[in-house]
Amino acid sequence: MSTLHHKLVFTLALAIAPAAPSLRAASGDSKPAPDPAMAAAHAAAKGDGLLEALLSEIDRSKSQLKMDQVQPPYFIEYRVNDVEEYSADADFGALRQNQHSHFRILRVIVRIGDYRQDSFYARGQGESTILPLDNDSIALRHQIWLATDDAYKAAGQSLAEKQAELKRFTSDANPIDDFAKSSPLIAVEPTVSLKLDEAYWKKTLEDVTNLYRQYPDVQLVTASARFSAVNEYLVNTEGTVTRCGKTSYSVSLEGSAQAADGMRLSRSPDYVVARSEELPSHEALLTNAKQMLDTIVALRKAPIVEEEYRGPVLFSADAADDIVASLVGQNLVGRKPQLGRPNRTTGAFATSYKARVLPTFLSVIDDPTLKDFQGKSLLGSYMFDSEGVKAQSVDAIQNGILTNYLIGRQPLRDFPASNGHGRAAAGMAAGPNLGVLLLKSSEPQSPEDLKKKVIEMVKEQGLPYGYRVETLGSPGNTPRLLYRVYASDGHEELVRGAVFNELDTRALRTDVIAAGNDPLVSNRPGGIPTTVISPSLLFDELEVKRADTSKDKLPEYPAPPLKR
Amino acid sequence: MLISESSQNRRELHSHPARSLRLAAACFLAAQLVFLPVASAEGDKPAPASTSRSKVPTPVSTNDPVLKAMQNELSRATTELSKSDQPPYYLSYTVYDQDFVGLVGAYGSLLSDTATERRFADVTMRVGTPDLDNTHGQSRSSGVTSGTLPLGSDQDAIARVLWELTDREYKRAVPALMNVRTDSAVRAEEEDKSPDFSKERPATHMGEADAALFDRSAWEDEIKRLSGAFRKYPEVYFSSVVLQVTHSNSRMVSSEGTTLVSPTSSTRLVMEAQTRADDGMDLLRVETFQAPNAKALPAEAELTAKIEKMAADLGALRKAPVAEPYDGPALLSGRAAAVFFHEVLGHRLEGHRQRDEEEGQTFTKKVGQEVLPKFLSVVDDPTLHEMAGVKLAGAYQFDNEGTPAERVDVIKDGVLKNFLMSRMPIKNFSDSNGHGRNQPGLMPTGRQGNLIVTSTQTVPEAQMRQKLIDEVKKQGKPYGLYFDDIQGGFTITTRQLPQAFQVLPVMVYKVYADGRPDELVRGVDIVGTPLAALTRILTTGDQQHVFNGVCGAESGQVPVAAVAPAMLFSEMEVQKRAHQHERPPLLPPPGFEAMASPAKTTQAKAEVKP
């Protein structure tokens, strides 16, 4: 476990309260005394109406919540996400949607039982409710009170259900705890808000999509902006109080067309940053949109991949980011399997602990404490996670060997404590997730050298060409821009209608032979924003074959003539 | 087939029934109502345009760029698709503009404060012939494709999206017609061989918008204050005050030559309060106010008084005994009787149910026969805007198929005369009477607008309670039931399930024959089967009462009103209400920490006021 090697520049108050666990014995029905651990929490929350309301209800619930035949809670957590959002969409040069929203969602988790075995199961995984937007104490506490009451009752039911369910299985000799202890953390950072020039963005989206006039063959041109500022507030009965904010600015473009044979072709590049000033300018977006539309026009005329190919394929960093996210990232996340299942986690790396999962020249870390990379802001960065645990850099894969899973406070076999990766979307339960995932090679090579290598290999194998993939589409890692790289003179030819066969964790482990020195930041917005950074990757053998997609009919009659 | 003042979807939208004390529901409600078509509040008469069906009609001249784009694109689509193998015989575009403000207050704060602007289009297409087309039977949904349209007035952008939606709709309609044709060749002949689409005269109408301004910040304050009034009542666990202000404009053009522009505005204020009895039964009180604009809503003092009454009612209900199943004389308040008629009668008079072979068809073959006591008549009149001083939610000038709304005498002196017709004909009723209604995105069916029950056998309302006691004594029962306020109801009209209805009363009193004071009870629902229930009405009050609500059925949610006098039934059956058994909150509410248990409030006076 590495320590927090980052200065909290913006931290107003950072005090690690004495690590005395504030839990009560699960069966204890003695009257609870005022808790010294909570005193520090109250001091830290002073002046923040929302934190104060959360703490006054958590105090009350901790000391008084008790129902006949049901144990009192041993742990209560309140997490509030204050979400301010702006979204706008335009197509064909006109705004179609423009909306501001602001809401607060509370997630309440009440655990009964003890750290070894508790009620976190089925409905016992917490309740969510909407909170008032102002800091009126009574109105806030009313909502918190109701949700806590529901959560406690659900916990009572769920613990009984869980114990009944466990009776179906032989009990484990070394059972894994349900919940990891964690020292209280007090860190109240400044809140964030949206920085937004609405008129500018409306105009930009309209101007960008107005390009459809120059591209009669393109059927759809859409541009969207999704800007958000999320402030997360967390308190728990262990004495943790955290507050932190995160902004996310995302602009995405989309274009689609049908080829003359009906095949649907599309592109959807996006620009996702944590700081608004890093967004592309109006001019840059217009240029990028033109490039996107040009490639769609080129794709319409591109030859279809008819014959199966087995040979070298070079993934550019953009395409590599997607496969690292889905094939490595998702499998490093240490999700506990269902009750009674013996595996360590779910996913493809469930039984791979200390086994080789990548070529030995590749290593992967997840370091949420990293704020910038090559001057770019990282959306997956955070100082403490959604369970109030300090972010940590985790060596997940060292020289190809899986050494760590990314986990939150739900322990796994051999992983008893959180490594600061318990993350949550607004109103949802926290679970293990990526922060900033970084794949590195011990023998980085330039993209030019990698391309040279492709040409050498195809020549050796007597193939006319190899493949280079520029960008992938979701879902399913299908290539959007795929080029043939000719052995003769190295020229590239755009093709369409291809898919990769068996692009999976096995291919990644055994077929990747080189990686680039060109790491690219891919910020991934959504409920839980993450970042993936990977360089180009070269596969010595991968199958490229024709996609089995239907060819839809073309429009019955031509598009309306333009009046302007 | 469900009517409610708030929204019954509160529960349907909730994955967890036990979370009934959840406030998020109010926001779902607010969001949901964005999509509601809003009844027209104007009064001028339509001027039908004369056109022939054979050619593309000349569009009505307009300066509205949206309407222009619709007209141009419609005419282009009609011309272009006429060259195809299977040209549509009918095509219409309806574009809905909706400008919506939703405020949700709870305990003195705003939980949600949103403003939304949207525009969407329904492209309706029929291929085949009016006798048999793609919308026949189970394929009905193939008649419409919907999507959002660009805001603003860029005709190029609007035309482009309409073109795309039309193309998509054509590609659904043609295969659907092939299925319909195969089906009708393979299946046994249908009982009702009516055509699929009626012939109607196209209408032209350009409505004017009501330009009432909405003072959002003043209302934010008022909603906070109103919702804060519930703070005084610790036993009200859940409460919300929701204001929804909608300005909308619907434009419709069709290949038959219809051009309609109907700007409308509506404001709804819904106050909801809920408590939970010690046995886990959730008890709900809802008050709804409807007006063309926010200025026409009741004054704040009047609303605050309502809140106090709601809280007092809930306090009394918490302590009221659970009523036992009962079958005997019952008095329904005007609003309760109105909901009863909406469910029991209204839904069964909707035209399309008379030809659908899955339907129970309770009244299909009863035209000309007595189905109600002679002293009762029923009309559905969407052209009426106000009654008994209350704005009617089910008023509109043209239905969603562009047919002018008509007053329809469905039952005259107890005898069934007519049905509520859309452009889907049924045996012996070949034309629409302007009741084809739908929520945007769905195909219209015959629906209710303002269902109005009138009576010629009345007694002054004040004497209705005595009439109930007389009937109780006559039948030798210890007590009768008085149903004061209701929250809504639902009914089942299909054949697979029993023909039944349920009305969900909120305030129910036992009225004793021996002169004891009336006793408030809780936890009962009125149940029964339609034909039996309707014949047991003995007499009615002399005042009309209005229930404004939102009705959900196959064609979506539409605003409706039901109007009726109080009614005395010789026999009415009630059953125990199913409910959750979760205990009330364990701790006292914030602000009442010293309280040991849920608060005591003064018993509401149990007194009959029909």
Give an account of the 3D structure.
The complex is a heterodimer of chains A (564) and B (610). Chain A is of the alpha+beta class. Chain A contains eight helices and 26 strands. In chain A, strands 1, 2, 3, 4, 5, 6, 7, 8 and 9 form a nine-stranded mixed beta sheet that branches. In chain A, helix 2 (49-64) crosses helix 3 (137-166) and helix 4 runs parallel beside helix 5. With 610 residues, chain B is an alpha+beta fold. Chain B is built from nine helices and 29 strands. Chain B is globular and about 80 Å long. The model of chain B is unreliable at 6-56 and 597-610 (pLDDT under 50). Chains A and B meet through helix 2, strand 3, strand 4 and helix 3 of A and helix 3, strand 4 and helix 4 of B.
Q: Which geometry of chain A do the CA atoms define?
A: globular
**Main beta-sheet strand count, sense and barrel state of chain A:** 9 strands, mixed
Instruction: Give me the number of helical elements of chain A.
Output: 8
Classification by helices and strands of chain A? alpha+beta
Distance between the termini of chain B: 26 Å
Low-confidence stretches of chain B: 6-56, 597-610
Tell me the overall shape of chain B: globular
What is the CA-atom radius of gyration of chain A, in angstroms? 26 Å
What topology does this entry show?
The complex is a heterodimer of chains A (564) and B (610).
Chain A: E1 13-15, H1 36-45, H2 49-64, E2 75-91, E3 94-111, E4 127-131, H3 137-166, E5 186-188, H4 198-209, E6 220-236, E7 241-258, E8 264-267, E9 270-273, H5 282-301, E10 309-315, H6 317-332, E11 362-366, E12 372-373, E13 376-377, E14 394-398, E15 401-402, E16 422-423, E17 431-432, E18 436-441, H7 447-461, E19 465-473, E20 478-486, E21 492-495, E22 498-501, H8 505-510, E23 512-515, E24 520-524, E25 530-534, E26 537-546
Helix pairs in contact in A: 1-2, 2-3, 4-5
Chain B: E1 2-4, H1 9-12, H2 24-33, E2 47-48, H3 65-81, E3 88-106, E4 109-129, E5 132-133, E6 144-148, H4 155-186, E7 203-206, H5 216-228, E8 238-254, E9 259-276, E10 282-291, H6 300-319, E11 326-332, H7 334-344, E12 376-380, E13 386-387, E14 390-391, E15 408-412, E16 415-416, E17 436-437, E18 445-446, E19 450-455, H8 464-475, E20 479-483, E21 486-492, E22 500-505, E23 508-512, E24 519-521, E25 524-528, H9 530-534, E26 537-540, E27 545-553, E28 556-564, E29 567-576
Parallel strand pairs in B: 7-9, 11-20, 19-28
Antiparallel strand pairs in B: 1-21, 1-27, 2-7, 3-4, 3-8, 4-5, 4-6, 8-9, 9-10, 11-29, 12-15, 12-19, 13-14, 15-16, 17-18, 20-23, 21-22, 22-25, 23-24, 25-29, 26-29, 27-28
Helix pairs in contact in B: 3-4
